[in-house]
Amino acid sequence: MIRTSSLVADGSPLRRAAPLVLPLVWGAVAVAWKFACPLARQPGLPMRIVTSVVFLSVGIALVLGVRRGLARELDRVRTVAAAAQRVLLRPPPARLGGLSLAAGQLSASRDAVVGGDLYEAVVTPHGVRIVIGDVRGHGLPALGAVVAVLGSFREAAHDERELGGVLRRLERALERHLRERAREEHPARCGEGPEHPVVEEFVTLLLLEVRPDGRLAVLNCGHPAPYRLGHRVERLSTGEPLPPLGVLPLPAVLVPHVTARLLPGETLVLHTDGAEEARDRRGRFFALDAVLAGAVGEEPAALVRRVRAALLHHTGGRITDDVALLAVRNDRVRVPAQPAEPGLRRTRPAPSSPC
């Protein structure tokens, strides 16, 4: 009994065949009535019409049963796939280390929740560390590199004291992934050339650290610079760019570029190149900076919704490249210096009287 229940519960062939039981029983009764009942063998147009209606009904019921079973199976597969993709590219917490965060993504692959873009934010003893990246290509084939980079970042962000050490760990993780891909796609193994040549796979990446005082440290591997929204919208300086991961080895010394502070109330918008390279039917690029100018002062979640809606409107819903957005607002409050309490105020010692 327990074995049967478990088979039905986890989507076994018995459960998938359940919608067909009633149509099959109905069909068996119709066949038995046709060949065993003397009334069904009587000549005449009325009896032929009744027989045709019975078998037509059985056929329609079978088709509907199969369709219903396939629809249920597809819903289950989509639910499992969506859950797995959300675990891979999980939404950031609403608040993290005194920062408010919100993220959104659009995949160029139909029915895919995530694609070749990645982002993550974690709070560490060294500050809040954020990564956003874009794997060459888009859609589900790029998920292998996304898994390698994100998995390494979630460990290295806590273990490495220096931001350069985190980036070095990401490079090694991607190199291991590319070597495994090369072995799997080698012509000697599959008998033909690789479908996705590994030599052309790389990741543009931005690694950022928000320190407790709001100072920003950045390492940029060929990724678009983020926007800072304060009194106006401006591009954040990220220093001399490094090569994308997987193209060339990183330099022996990695020194983060320490840029301006993210002041309380200011918002940082990180994005992938799919946002700025999206085009409409006339070939015009999406004006991300103009949309952000109209979102100054908004909550991160509202800002992400505004950009997403504007992007879909601009492209008519035809996304040709994956898009990822991450909005980070500094909600840390500056505590002004408080005056000393009257009872604790220092008093000057009275001058001593001369002898």
Task: Give a description of the structure.
The chain is α+β, with helices and mostly antiparallel strands and 355 residues long. It folds into 2 domains: 2-83; 92-330, PPM-type phosphatase domain (Phosphatase 2c, domain 1, 4-Layer Sandwich). It contains 10 helices and 11 strands. The protein has helices spanning 2-9, 13-16, 21-36, 45-88, 143-159, 163-184, 187-190, 273-276, 288-293, 300-315; strands at 95-96, 99-106, 117-124, 127-135, 203-210, 215-221, 227-229, 233-235, 257-261, 267-271, 323-330. The strands form 2 sheets. It has a 6-stranded antiparallel β-sheet with strand order 1-2-11-10-7-8. A 5-stranded antiparallel β-sheet has the order 3-4-5-6-9, covered by helices on one side. A hairpin with a 3-residue loop joins strand 7 and strand 8. Helix 3 runs antiparallel to helix 4 (45-88) and helix 5 packs antiparallel against helix 6 (163-184). The longest helix has 44 residues, at 45-88. The termini are far apart.
Which SSEs are present, and which pair or pack?
Blueprint: H1 2-9, H2 13-16, H3 21-36, H4 45-88, E1 95-96, E2 99-106, E3 117-124, E4 127-135, H5 143-159, H6 163-184, H7 187-190, E5 203-210, E6 215-221, E7 227-229, E8 233-235, E9 257-261, E10 267-271, H8 273-276, H9 288-293, H10 300-315, E11 323-330
Antiparallel strand pairs: 1-2, 2-11, 3-4, 4-5, 5-6, 6-9, 7-8, 7-10, 10-11
Helix pairs in contact: 3-4, 5-6
